[in-house]
Design a protein that fits this description.
The protein is of the alpha/beta class. It is built from 20 helices and 27 strands. Helix content is 30%, strand content 17%. The relative contact order is 0.12.
């Protein structure tokens, strides 16, 4: 069961539904530099949008120099402070609604009209989810929140409304005045700091709207002891940096040339390696050539099947041949229902999922190769000829996932107690299952790497229950040591391939750095919202310097109360892919991204948690996430749907997100 953990980060929750303009594409592609041209394409950014409502008082039409209004004290230290000396002048220049001129909204013509018509009611957090951005702007200026949170979400509202320069000014105001302010999730299970989030949003807006000719430099918020819920122990050093003028050409000229940097670290001795350059950037190489993972999670579960009916359902698709014609159903015989009439017409030939994935440019799939009910690896559960064909004919490799005790797979632990990484017998069972799997598959041409675990580090307070069913978060040292032990064994058995860990977000990275040095790649499942992954890259680089693979990202295609929402899903995927591309080696940022794995190729109808029948796609949300409507619908995460469900496992309907990747990746590998 690959359930999303709840990480309800409010900043990304709201921005998830922002409406951006189409990309401007005027950078030509050069031979043998296809992915580099994607980076340039991303850097072309968006056209500035037309604001959805007017603001009378926009202040100065430029970024402010805060040295004109006060003094920066102790920059770069835990004692940072901005001393505001000319408050009245700053209020005049900053514009209405932005700290310290939040009361300026009261004098806006629109505010007076809304107040007179009684349109300003409602809880300010609920207002964020409405389409009335003018109301949101007015209400949040007077919200009963601390000034840091209020300033940050005012910036978010301005951004969503298309007031991009005022939004940058507001985010920077939050960074200057309130970098250490926390924002808590509604259930108090999670919090984030205003400062780092403001930095990432300013950087993103300066990048996404190049005609502003702006960039943020030197800004940094460093948080020590931030791995728990105790704010008192956190030590936060702040440098707000400054926003300066810089043209797109200047930004492109500053991109690093990896040929000018030497390789300082190399992990792996075989055909799959990762190399770290002297500028800190990481690159994955396969057979001596750069390889950027354009991956997807593939589990074409037939409607009506699931863990409650079939404990081996996760591997069943590799052998299902319903019509007994010698062809495996989903990989080779699925067809696209173009006219959505739920039948295969003459102009809708059987094409197969493997071809559909090749057409969209996929070069790797994450594949869960599970164990039998006795926690032993069973080679008969893997259709090796099928996977060889996947690689040889379609050019797609396999990232082999072993749950390593997640959901109690491999440990033989009870569901109620979960996997115990301090139990020698459970460790032995899991290790032996991995050993058998590696020995059976290590020489197969389709194997790209080994992936250990899937969100095993999930804390119980993410959703009020540890959905991963392990005690890794309770015994992080023991879990990290076990990871290291298993990874070392894999390296000894198979020096040709690398080993990754499958984490949920950033927990336990300090333990990996100390006890799991055999791990080659840091895999992270992350669902932070439409804008991307925030400071994930920087924090991971600081805590556990490994190349990063986003092992799950994506968004459902259902909007609660409205129905199917392909456009919202598309915008979410586009923002996430842009962020991954920006953080690749040779890009403008940390350079530790080696790719991403979309979750997922096709909707799975078995994931309901409310008793919904497995032959009906659930439309009620399951929990809160930063998706367009603020909720997660687990059975709608595919970029391809199973249509009416009447023709499973054959019927396919391609969503807008599928065509987006096909356009971006062009079917190449």
């Amino acid at each position: 069961m690959l359930l999303r953990a709840l990480i309800f980060v409010c900043v990304f929750f709201f921005l998830a539904s922002c409406d951006n303009r189409p990309l401007v594409q005027n950078i030509s592609e050069t031979e043998n530099e296809k992915f580099l041209s994607l980076l340039y394409e991303v850097y072309q950014g968006y056209e500035l949008p037309v604001p959805t409502f007017d603001i009378n008082d926009l202040g100065k039409n430029s970024i402010l120099d805060y040295n004109d209004y006060g003094k920066f004290q102790n920059i770069g230290t835990p004692h940072y402070h901005y001393l505001l000396e000319k408050k009245e002048e700053l209020m005049k220049d900053i514009g209405a609604g932005i700290y310290p001129n939040q009361r300026g909204v009261l004098f806006e013509e629109g505010y007076k009209k809304y107040r007179e018509e009684g349109l300003l009611g409602g809880y300010y957090w609920d207002v964020l989810n409405t389409n009335d951005l003018k109301k949101a702007f007015y209400v949040w200026s007077q919200a009963d929140e601390n000034d840091g949170v209020k300033t940050f979400f005012t910036a978010a509202i301005l951004e969503k409304a298309g007031h991009i320069l005022p939004a940058i000014k507001a985010y920077y105001a939050a960074l200057v005045h309130f970098p250490r302010t926390p924002c808590w999730a509604s259930d108090k299970s999670f919090f984030w700091y205003i400062g780092p989030a403001a930095i990432k949003n300013i950087e993103r807006l300066c990048r996404d709207y190049p005609e502003l000719n702006l960039t943020l430099v030197e800004a940094q918020v460093v948080i020590k002891n931030g791995n728990d819920m105790d704010l008192e122990s956190d030590i936060i050093s702040v440098n707000p940096g400054k926003i300066i003028k810089k043209t797109l050409d200047e930004k492109l000229r500053e991109l690093p040339d990896l040929n000018a940097h030497r390789v300082v670290v190399r992990r792996g001795k075989g055909k799959v390696q990762v190399a770290e350059y002297s500028n800190g950037h990481w690159q994955l190489r396969v057979d001596g050539k750069p390889f950027f993972i354009k991956g997807i999670s593939y589990a074409p579960t037939e409607i009506g099947l699931g863990p409650h009916k079939d404990p081996l359902f996760i591997n069943r698709w590799m052998f299902t041949d319903t019509n007994k014609n010698g062809l495996i159903d989903a990989p080779y015989e699925s067809w696209v229902d173009k006219n959505k009439n739920s039948r295969q017409d003459n102009d809708e030939p059987s094409v197969g999922d493997f071809q559909l994935m090749k057409d969209m440019g996929i070069n790797a799939i994450r594949l869960s190769i599970s164990n039998n009910p006795k926690s032993q690896y069973d080679p008969s559960l893997v259709n090796k000829p099928l996977l060889r064909d996947l690689y040889r004919r379609f050019g797609i490799r396999v990232i082999v996932l072993d749950f390593l005790g997640a959901y109690t797979v491999g440990s033989n632990a009870s569901w109620e107690e979960g996997t115990d990484y301090t139990d020698p017998e459970q460790r032995r069972l899991m290790k032996e299952a991995v050993r058998a799997k590696v020995l059976d598959l290590k020489d197969e041409p389709f194997v790209l790497m080994w992936l250990l675990g899937n969100e095993n580090n999930m804390r119980a307070d993410y959703m009020g229950i540890n959905a991963a069913r392990t005690n890794a978060s309770v015994y992080p040292k023991e879990y990290a040591q076990f990871l290291n032990e298993v990874a070392k064994m894999i390296h000894e058995l198979d020096p040709e391939h690398l080993v990754a860990v499958g984490n949920i977000e950033l927990d336990l990275l300090d333990y990996y750095a100390q006890y799991a040095h055999e791990i080659d790649i840091l895999g992270i499942n992350s669902y932070r919202g439409k804008s991307g992954f925030g400071n994930l890259w920087e924090v991971a680089k600081e805590k556990f310097d490994r190349p990063m693979l986003i092992t799950e990202y994506g968004c459902d295609a259902y909007y609660q109360g409205k129905g199917i929402d392909e456009e919202g899903q598309l915008q979410y995927h586009a923002g996430n892919l842009r962020d991954i591309i920006i953080h690749q080696a040779g890009g403008p940022s940390v350079g530790n991204a080696i790719g991403g794995i979309i979750f997922e190729f096709i909707d799975e109808w078995w994931k309901d948690t409310t008793g919904n029948p497995e032959d009906k796609q659930q439309t009620d949300f399951q929990f809160r996430t930063p998706f367009p409507d603020g909720f997660d619908h687990e059975e709608w995460l595919g970029i391809v749907s199973q249509g009416s469900g009447k023709n499973s496992p054959f019927e396919r309907r391609l969503r807008k997100s599928y065509y987006y990747y096909k356009e971006m990746w062009g079917g190449g590998n």
